[in-house]
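S.,

Sequence below, as promised.
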Amino acid sequence: MTTTEPRRKQPKSRAGERMLAVGLASTACIGLVGVIGVRAAQSDETDTAPVDAAQPVSSQGLTQADLDAYAAQLADQAAQLKDYRQQLKSVARQLNDEIGAYNRALAAGEPVYVQVPADNNWTGGGSSNNGGGGAAPAPQPAPQPQPQAPSKSS
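The prediction came back faster than expected:
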């Protein structure tokens, strides 16, 4: 037959679970302290030890000598680029002066002729309109203003 009495819970022994939790927590703490100590010791070694030029110092395997040579190449290239920039500025100033003279001559109504260098070896672009290149045509002089005849109005 069945009884109607409620069952009593069996008392569980949680002492073993508690001991396991305490053991895991203490092991984790000891491991963390050990990792911190090892990292601190390694950082002290790298700070005090001189860097050997033949020893790789980067993740790609480059040495300090390789990095120094690369830095010297970059410095040389920076100097070349600075010189090139100065040349470009000089040419730009010269072109601006020529454009100013051209505009002043147009405003004064003087005939303006554009001088084309004889060694113009322009080959053109890849446009389908120009047939694949050729020498650039010489610019034509600006047309002279024609005097207008008075018109008769009725």
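The two ends are 136 Å apart (CA to CA).

Coffee later?
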